[in-house]
Design goal:
The protein has 9 helices and 14 strands. By secondary structure, it is α/β, with parallel strands linked by helices. The strands form 2 sheets. Strands 3-2-1-7-9-8-5-6-4 form a 9-stranded mixed beta sheet, with helices on both faces. It has a 5-stranded mixed beta sheet with strand order 12-11-10-13-14.
Length: about 280
């Protein structure tokens, strides 16, 4: 039996085994990419468009989930942990109904062309609110009053901690993909049409450099919503999530600290929480 935690983020899919890949797939044939053959369809993983549906339980997440399992383990019997945004706590039962005590048969071809037929039995399923897992990774030096800010793709989860207890938590509908969308909208205003994925890649490759205004706008919007909720001056501020790396220069300017291994703190911490539940 393998205990495995998976976070199907709006930007990247991550697992507790240190696996990460873009949360995108297409049914148009691609070369040199992983392929999941499931329910009579071929899904080319890591290509295609981002899903703009924010409710994770309503996404067609099975191709990404099965890919994450195939990339992470050779085990057939799995206890699974899934992460979901704080403001989607009501979706827990939907995930459990779709996955618990279910068997999935599919073919997986990796990037090198090796094909495997997999039969996966999912036994226990635990759904953990995003950000909670990262609490496990707050440093020993963290103060008794802390704010943990988890910046993801389309959302940012915020947790307030006092005396070792969570006193408040909420989700902001802004993330690093919101920044890319601002650039996309700006370019469309000049008659240039690009996909969100093209904008992201062009920024990473240095083909778009004039983006500081849009980037600081999104970061300031996130910080403003946090401050509107509670005054932040009486808290130590910690950041995690993949988006924290993108905003790191602004995080340092406001005196925030980025957790080590920030891309994986959630998914690894979620596994710790689930195992505590399962082990009683």
């Amino acid at each position: 039996m393998k205990n495995l935690s998976i976070e199907i983020g709006n930007r990247n899919t991550k697992t507790s085994e240190g696996i990460i890949f873009p949360s995108r797939y297409t049914m148009f044939k691609q070369i040199g990419t992983a392929v999941i053959s499931y329910n009579g369809c071929d899904y080319y993983i890591g290509n295609g468009s981002y899903d703009i549906e924010l409710n994770k339980s309503k996404k067609d997440f099975m191709p990404l989930l099965l890919s994450a399992i195939a990339k992470s383990t050779t085990a057939s019997d799995i206890n699974l942990v899934i992460g979901t945004p704080i403001n989607q706590r009501d979706t827990k039962e939907e995930f459990i109904n779709k996955l618990k005590d279910k068997t999935f048969v599919f073919e997986y071809m990796n990037e090198k062309g090796k094909v495997q037929t997999r039969l996966i039995n999912i036994h226990k399923v635990e759904v953990i609110l995003e950000g909670l897992g990262s609490v496990k990774y707050l440093p020993a030096a963290a103060g008794k009053r802390s704010i943990l800010i988890d910046i993801g793709g389309w959302t940012t989860n915020v947790i307030y901690i006092s005396g070792g207890k969570i006193i408040d938590a909420f989700t902001i509908d802004k993330g690093i993909l919101s920044f890319y969308k601002l650039i996309k909208d700006r370019e469309e205003g000049t008659g240039e049409l690009y996909s969100l994925e093209e904008i992201e890649d062009a920024i990473k490759q240095g083909y778009i450099n004039n983006y500081s205004l849009e980037k600081i706008t999104i970061f300031n919007t996130i910080v403003k919503e946090i401050k509107n909720r509670r005054n932040t001056k009486l808290f130590d501020i910690y950041f995690t999530g993949g988006g924290s790396t993108d905003f790191q220069e602004y995080i340092h300017q406001i005196g925030g600290t980025i957790l080590q291994d920030n891309v994986f703190t959630n998914v690894k911490g979620n596994l710790k929480i689930a195992e505590e539940i399962w082990n009683g």
